[in-house]
Amino acid sequence: MDRLCRSRGDGKVPSRSYIAPVDELADVVIRARRGDRGAFAELYRRFSRAVHGVVLARTSYQDAGDLVQDVFAAALQRLPQLGEPAAFPGWLMAIARNRAIDHLRVKRPLDELTEIAVPASRRSEVAQVLAALRTLPEAYQETMVLRLVEGLSGPEIAEQTGLSPGSVRVNLHRGMRLLRERLGISEEADDQAG
User: Fold this and answer.
1) What is the pLDDT of residue 107?
2) pTM for the complete prediction?
3) The domain containing residue 49 runs over which residues?
4) Domain-located, residue 3
């Protein structure tokens, strides 16, 4: 569960150094569109965790890495079709969702616990949490996986998905409430444990 539900894994708050103003992001997208491989590498660095989380919300852990690569390959190919460079985050997440859905049409997700680095004593707990996460409505599922699995903060999720910060807060709050219900955890018990 440590890797599954890390806030960063190292106890530190996620760095905000990659959260960039919209104008700067648009500049990187424009440079990547012109064929600047360094600019595209920067887009990969900024958005790969979010793409991984979106894909992981729908597919197995073992397939997610390959699908992330597929998403970025498709994005590179389709980048000239992107109308507004500032719309890149939402556009990229749409590609990720569609790739994951296409993948599921061909292959149903398998038990991915063999690939996740989890102590044997916590495997059933991790399996239970993953199963419960996957039963949440799609909007909550994505934001919850990005928060709990990828360790992104609310503002980072907003920037990387194109959602408003308010929508992310609502999705996280409602998603956490539903997740607690599905896991049989009362909010009072959770408050006492924390």
Assistant:
1) 67
2) 0.68
3) 22-193
4) no
